[in-house]
Amino acid sequence: MRELFAGVGAAAVVILLYYQSNLIPLLILAGVLLLLFNFSGIKTMRLTAVGKRAHGKQISFNEIGGQETAKKELLEALDFVMKPHEVKHMGIRPLKGVMLVGPPGTGKTLLAKAAAGYTGSSFLSVAGSEFIEVYAGVGAQRVRQLFNQCRQKAKNEGRNSAILFIDEIDILGGQRGRHSSHLEYDQTLNQLLVEMDGLNGNDGLNILVIGATNRPEALDTALLRPGRFDRVVQVDLPDLEGREQILELHLHNKPVEDNISLEKIARETFGFSGAHLESLANEAAILAMREGRRRIGEKHLLEAIDKVIMGEKLERKPGKEEMWRIAVHETGHALVSEELKPGSVSQVTITPRGKALGYVRHQPERDYYIYTADHLEKQIAVLLGGTGSEKLVLGNRSTGSLNDFKQAVELAKKIIAAGLSSLGVVSIDDLPVGLLHRTIQQIIAVQEKRVADLLASRVDLIKEIARIIIEKEKISGDTLRRHIFSSTGQAC
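Predicted structure:
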């Protein structure tokens, strides 16, 4: 269509030039028509894209691991869609909306798709950003058209229920009044509220709206009141058992060796989302294929953890002096960690990945969700172990500890904010800057002395382990503990 208009316009210009006509009115008219054409084209293009989003691969709740609580809550809401007669008999008001809240990659979209398959409902999926435009009124119009499309889709498919999934709904449903110079956001949200108020099922069609966001604090309060989004379902990062379930799901279609301990892999992936674990399984398969192996081994999965966390190995190699400093630094982290939390080190390496020239990977004995002052102080000590080892063996410190210091300061702030410091219960935001700074320094200074005392008698051990790390580039936690035991006669 654009090519046709361009051809006709070019021919008209040539003819008018031939007859020496004034082209200014024609150009003005063409400009106006072009703006109108683009404006209408944007709406058509976007709404067509909305309408064409289909189920894709059918997903069941059995294919989603690590979210048992979220599945339970969502399934209960879906029963209201599947059993309208029972709901009516009990005098229950059907839920109009369910809000899925959680970090990125935890499976919110998968839960919405599984919901559609579970209920046998028509399914329509959109992103919040598709509703916001620079032109006033366009977003509200799209909201109306979207609900009409949802009804029409269910009618065409012969279904009496539909699920509308709005991803990143915080863009569409953000708090009103934030954009004082542009009311398009507010008008769009107002229209969504009106549409959800009208979901009474009188037309024989039950529409359930499922929203997903990782920023619930940005949502307008009117959106979350009862009668609109009736339930807020937390879709959190999986725990140890959940991570093991997810790994099983993502490895079931891949050839793996029989002696793999998924519990060990799950233990070392604390803080991983479902998306991270899927990437881990995929990267492990790639590593096995690179080596020409027919099956994925445990070593491939362990190396894949490093790649997901830190990135691909880098080609650059520091000089001998820098390599020695890095090895000493990482050895310090590892020895302090083993002293304060025996058995916590999984691997020590000086292989550059991402922005890190070396690192220690830890394996927590269990997942922690709340922390004591002692636990946080130990974490600070481990972070300071690298610079303490450098100062003890090399006589000075380097910029390699910059990120360690940043993390140590954040942990010290957490101790103060939680009322676990000498200041007692305080509002960290209201503390004088000087007092906050001095308290942070005091907390860190205590741990610096702790680290210095701990490593003072282990200079020879640091040098021995650092030499092994330089020779092999990495050592396992078990190897580290054997050297500690042979050197001291007891666990570090």
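Summary: The chain has a mean pLDDT of 82.
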